[in-house]
UniProtKB/TrEMBL annotation:
The keyword DNA damage does not apply. It is a multi-pass membrane protein. GO terms for cellular component: membrane. The lineage of its organism: Eukaryota, Fungi, Dikarya, Ascomycota, Pezizomycotina. This is Uncharacterized protein.
Length: 168
């Protein structure tokens, strides 16, 4: 998937503004891969027996696995963050002309996967600062950007939203 994605980006134009959120799909699999590698790296010393693969040395095999897994997870996370930044820039560039489409759902899950990878790597390296960057509160959904409002004109939508927002 990444080969096609990376070879197509420089040769082709970006998709339509409302479909650009589909670029976040590239963020998903790398996010889960980095989270999984970081989690496996942390469990390696506990799970892998010291004599695994008949390696006779002072270094345990689980520690060796951790030494390779955490940097690899970090590299994949950095690649994932690059895909995320690329998708965000593309979406911001066309944000004035975006209309709701089901591609908007592609924003949610890959972003969660990136956050999961960030939290796992923060646990692996013992950094509370990195974990703090991974979690913050923002509004993801906005009033008026709902699938059920497709046939209504703007005046009806704004009137309904004002009615809903008034205190009872």
């Amino acid at each position: 998937m990444y080969t096609l994605y990376l070879s197509r980006l420089p040769r082709s134009r970006l998709t339509g503004e409302s479909k650009r959120l589909g670029m976040f799909v590239a963020v998903g699999s790398a996010g889960y891969t980095s989270a999984t590698l970081a989690a496996l790296g942390m469990d390696g010393p506990r799970v892998i027996p010291p004599e695994f693969l008949s390696i006779d040395s002072d270094m345990r095999t689980g520690d060796l696995w951790k030494a390779f897994a955490i940097p690899t997870a970090t590299f994949i996370w950095l690649l994932d963050f690059w895909f995320f930044a690329l998708a965000v820039c593309a979406c911001l560039r066309g944000s004035r002309h975006m209309e709701f489409s089901l591609d908007w759902l592609a924003f949610v899950f890959p972003s969660v996967e990136l956050t999961t990878g960030t939290v796992q790597i923060a646990d692996a390296i013992g950094s509370s600062a990195v974990k703090g960057v991974a979690v913050w509160q923002k509004k993801v959904l906005w009033p008026g950007k709902d699938v059920n409002l497709e046939g209504l004109d703007d005046q009806e939508v704004s009137y309904e939203l004002r009615q809903e927002q008034q205190p009872s």
